[in-house]
């Protein structure tokens, strides 16, 4: 009798992963649009990409996609093929959505405080969706998830350390008020990740 493969009830199906990646990247793309509309930024590779896009005039999507390339080898070696493939897809989706969004929406009125807080909330929700489906947005997220899984060091704490470097750089190249409003949004984002991202609360991958 042929052996019957038993499906793991804790593993996400392809349709579940698809909607998770699409929903997560769309939420983060909305966050990037809010930040860009107010001239703000955030932490992690996305934040560094925004700052560089302001300074150079280059496309956020192109910078973000390029900066993530060196991290895929670590993802493959340390997190596995499944995680790496999902992360590459998530990065590509976010880069594409952020190129598309300026043609679909704009903000006539956007207070920087509101932009920072809303961007933090939408990015937090998007990243949690991606984490839940075994993906990240590359860069620092890969390192943060690896450290959390291996050592228990919270992913949010790793991100905060990197954020300090991004904000130090931005302090010298952007207006002070933009840096301060951006700090508010980054704090909201990191608090959401720090409180909610715990693998013992969900085990599906």
TrEMBL record:
A single Gene Ontology CC term: plasma membrane
Subcellular location: Cell membrane
Membrane topology: Multi-pass membrane protein
InterPro entries for the chain: UPF0750_membrane (IPR051461), YitT (IPR003740)
Pfam family name, one: YitT_membrane
Predominant place of localization: membrane
Record key words, sorted: Cell membrane, Membrane, Transmembrane, Transmembrane helix
Transmembrane segments: 21-45, 51-75, 87-105, 117-146, 158-174, 180-197
Protein name: YitT family protein
Originating species: Thioclava pacifica DSM 10166
């Amino acid at each position: 009798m042929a052996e019957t493969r038993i499906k793991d009830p804790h593993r996400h199906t392809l349709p579940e992963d698809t909607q998770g990646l699409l929903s997560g990247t769309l939420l983060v793309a909305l966050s990037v649009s809010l930040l860009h509309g107010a001239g703000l930024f955030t932490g992690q590779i996305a934040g560094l990409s925004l700052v560089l896009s302001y300074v150079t005039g280059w496309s956020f999507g192109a910078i973000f996609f390029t900066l993530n390339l060196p991290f895929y080898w670590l993802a493959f070696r340390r997190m596995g093929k499944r995680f790496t493939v999902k992360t590459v897809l998530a990065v590509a989706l976010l880069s594409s959505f952020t190129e598309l969004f300026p043609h679909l929406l704009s903000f006539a009125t956007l207070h920087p405080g509101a932009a920072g807080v809303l961007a933090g909330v939408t990015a937090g929700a998007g990243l949690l969706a991606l984490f839940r489906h075994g993906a990240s947005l590359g860069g620092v997220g890969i390192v943060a998830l690896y450290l959390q899984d291996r050592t228990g060091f919270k992913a949010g704490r790793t991100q905060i350390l990197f954020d300090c470097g991004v904000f130090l750089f931005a302090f010298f190249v952007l207006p002070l008020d933009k840096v301060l409003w951006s700090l508010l949004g980054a704090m909201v984002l990191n608090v959401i990740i720090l409180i909610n991202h715990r693998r013992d609360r969900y085990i599906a991958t």
